[in-house]
Amino acid sequence: MTTASLNNPVSPKQPGSLFTPSAWGLMAVLIALFGLLHYVFLRRTWLFATTDSDWSHALIVPLISLYYIRIHQDHIRQTIPRVAPIGLLFMLAGFVGYGLGIYPIRNDMAQGYSMILALFGITWFVMGTHAMRWLWFPVAYLVFAVKVSDKIWEQIANLLQAIAANAATIVLECWAVFDGNLESVNDRGITIDLTFYKAGELITESINVAEACSGLRMLMAFIALGVAFAFIQKLQWWQRIALISLTIPIAILVNVARVSTIGVLYVYNREMATGDFHIFVGMLMLIPAAGIFMLVTWILDNIVISDEDEDETPPARKTDAQADETPEPPAWVSPTRVLSALVTGAGVTLLAGLAYLGFLSALRPDVVGESFPAWAGWTTLVVCTLALLIAIVAVVPALFRNLPEGPTGRPARQMALIVIIGALATATAGLKQAVAMTEVVLLKEAVPLRESVVKIPFTMGPWRLIDDQRLPKDIVSELGTEQYVSRLYVNTQMHDATGVDFKNTTQRNRYLADAPVGSMVRLHVAYYTGTADTVPHVPERCFIAGGLVARGGGYPLVTLDRSRLTRDIENSDYLATLPDGQTARIPDAEFTMRQFTYGTEDRPDQDMHVLYVFAANGEFAETAERVRLLAFNPTDRYSYYCKIELQPIGVADPNRAVETVTRALDDMLPHVMAALPDWIEVTEGTWPPAEPR
């Protein structure tokens, strides 16, 4: 790709200012437009960073990038000032990728990486190829602030959980040799069983190596920390590769120490092994991680003693007197040049936008509509792509010919800034217009419950509550919502509870021990709205994390008792009337659920089952992916989803499990749906209720 040479090289002995004061004003406009264009992603990243401790490091990543630029500013000042038109291709590719990430891909990770690609292209175009030797890293480093898709992250989690549990078990077994209180340590999958003495009694309790302790929570922070050490320190290329390759092993090592510490604390003070202190221990692990990185850096730096790279030596700074002697570049910014630069930036962006539209109409005609046929899409894609390449090769370099030469090449960079401003302004206006035409809502609003799920009745038909479980704070943090219930119900028609005092532990345990198969169901309901995350928490992860073995499953069709429902023909759904006269809207009387079959290693012949379905924006969905499509429909102003999970206790036969859950849903589902927002009311604007004036 052609690179336009603009000025004479700057003397490496006298690094000057990158921009004039007026150019810094242009830079401020550029930053504002860049932030406005990517506002949706930046807003969601802020929500992730401030609400999800897994990604709180995202707020620090940009500061590290700025620090890297700060310590290399003298090198950047002395670079040969040339614009690189090839950078525009990367910028435009980032714009297109960002649009695809919004729709139809609908993926935050795609949006984030596309934004960074656009920033990379802008930096390359404005600062030139020579300056990218120092600027590529701070731009690329921003990828650590982008939340990785849950599908990818869960695969990493499973591996790290197993490694952390196995290694921590070995460490705790060694600790048990010196600790008389700790009798034995065993691991089941990613659950660690500790047998220890407490108040003179030998007891066994389990530690679940959940994501918070597996290395998943701090993995990206550890990797980002290691990469920062590798590039901020003066290291050779092979030393940097060695340090970066050690980031994941160091992260695993530190997190094994974390799990082991939690295990030891569990023996002596269970409260210190859970809740806020448990999370605090995890944050403390950043200190030994930083220490290990510093030690490895010192070792690598002293393995081979070499002469200092001259290129790494900062150039001499100019004195104030020298700075005053530097002549200002002659006046060059004429209205004609400014207009030409703005039009060029707008023109290449329009061509990229038309190529994007052609791409969608050719490959996804359902997105664009019948008004733009596929043949027209292919034609538009080819023509606009060719025109775009011609513009970047010929038109853009022509803007920088015959510029008055200044000793620092600042006029060329000012022109480049104006081109980018034109491109960003056009892209921002185009995105706003596309959103207005398609009525897409980029930031969803929270929709409140009609009543808290905690108010789901203790008695529903023949089902009576016998256990209302409240989860520990760290597990609630992993669950991601405070609006949940996890309750055990018994069918009193199958197992008479007359005369049983459930407050009496002896009577309660005897009653549960005598319960016939299929008479007890655990109901778990969790409600989400206004969250940055788009992928719901599924029970498979919890059961596997608890040391259970996955044995398959399926997607059975569940049919409710229609005689207990009223058909709402107008809205194509059903209504259920509760004992108190309240009406609950049920999307369908026949829907698919996800059935997950699991068991234990010591009982391979004994299967257990859990069935769940999601209610998302007025519809049922059996998979997390379908929830993402429903609850984050581009045209919906509000979004919510609710996991409704039932586990028949002691039922091994899969068909009987489905039958038990179906009959339980006949009584329980109307009460659950009564607590959720009525989607008809939401779409009609009657819910949420208007704010009082």
UniProtKB/TrEMBL annotation:
GO MF entry, a single one: peptidase activity
Membrane protein topology class: Multi-pass membrane protein
Entry keyword Cell inner membrane: no
Keywords tagged on the record: Cell membrane, Hydrolase, Membrane, Protease, Transmembrane, Transmembrane helix
TM region(s), chain numbering: 23-42, 83-103, 115-136, 216-235, 241-267, 279-300, 338-363, 375-400, 412-431
GO biological process: proteolysis
Name of the protein in its database record: Transmembrane exosortase (Exosortase_EpsH)
Organism whose genome encodes this protein: Mucisphaera calidilacus
